[in-house]
Amino acid sequence: MASGVNKVILIGNLGRDPEIRYLENGSPRVTFSLATSEDYTDRTSGERKTMTEWHNVVLWRRLAEIAEKYLRKGSKIYLEGRITNRQYQDQQGVTRYITEIVGQNMTMLGGNPRSDEAQARPQATGQQAQPSQAPQTPAAPQTPPQAPAAPEVSVDDSDDLPF
């Protein structure tokens, strides 16, 4: 039995374009900031206000490649992951601490910001992507190639869904 649970679910918008870096072993790592907002009414003034929280997000491997390819500043995503804390030394030798969300599952919400066309909303997990293709009949006329659709990735974790 697990001694604890470390699970985060966020829906928000990217505050900046994903930045990709490759480790020495070739593993891709993407980082970006994610804004989540909550609207509320101030009890004293009755005025509607919005409170925004910023989260540092890290994605690894295939999920990192998908994010780097399809996400841009302003993209809306659903993200599942876990909270991690780490420390590092800055250029002046001062120890700094950072809290990050390590993403494990991601679903893009809304349209593709790189294209005006409506495209499928891909889901991505830490698993290998499995793009789906419709079979073509041999007699069908060939159309010019279009921009590739975002890969659709899914894992049957239906018993783990929070809703």
TrEMBL record:
Stretch list, region Disordered: 106-163
Molecular function GO labels: single-stranded DNA binding
Keywords: DNA-binding
Bias-annotated ranges (Acidic residues): 154-163
Record-linked SUPFAM superfamilies: Nucleic acid-binding proteins (SSF50249)
GO cellular component: nucleoid
Name of the molecule in the record: Single-stranded DNA-binding protein
Taxonomic placement: Bacteria, Pseudomonadati, Bacteroidota, Cytophagia, Cytophagales
Gene: ssb2
